[in-house]
Model the fold of this input.
Amino acid sequence: QKEVEQNSGPLSVPEGAIASLNCTYSDRGSQSFFWYRQYSGKSPELIMFIYSNGDKEDGRFTAQLNKASQYVSLLIRDSQPSDSATYLCAVSGGYNKLIFGAGTRLAVHP
Amino acid sequence: SAVISQKPSRDICQRGTSLTIQCQVDSQVTMMFWYRQQPGQSLTLIATANQGSEATYESGFVIDKFPISRPNLTFSTLTVSNMSPEDSSIYLCSVPGTARTDTQYFGPGTRLTVL
Done:
């Protein structure tokens, strides 16, 4: 059974701080890793994907991947109240399928 | 990414009835995916729908309960049959990205409440 684990939170950070969201996965053969943001009552929105070990930056977001440790993370710099949402980690499960973690709820307070 | 619409956006149904959810995409896609998101939970893949072939169901989901149609490359339906309160969930369709087919983009979802 392929699994993706996330801390459910809530993770509470002050405005302007760095939010660090973490995810581990069980299938060592996974090749693609994704972060989705889901606002309450809305559908998931793809914000980052990463395929290679190391860091990938896009604006205030940085995804980090360590395949040896089976660990992927998302850093949000200069966190804003508008970043308050649930962040879902997803891992490729073969045949273009995605396996999702339970999500981490982030709360950014002014 | 493709523009995806779903109908209905929400519904309240009586137990024992069935509801068909529609998913429309503004471009042709080979694969479409149907997910369920139960209250407070993450997304669980129900099935993969390919045009011209039977849908492929994930463990725990069966065709009699969740029949799927895929009549063309821009449209799919998911039916939730003989509903019970445990079927109260958000149902989402998704399609692969065009630049990277291992990415997925989601429709707005259908919020179903079964009484």
Observations:
- The mean pLDDT of chain B is 94.
- Chain B has no helices and eleven strands.
- The interface with chain A takes residues 1, 31, 33, 41-45, 48, 90, 92, 96-97, 100-109 of chain B (CB under 8 Å).
- The CA atoms of residues 23 and 86 of chain B lie 22 Å apart.
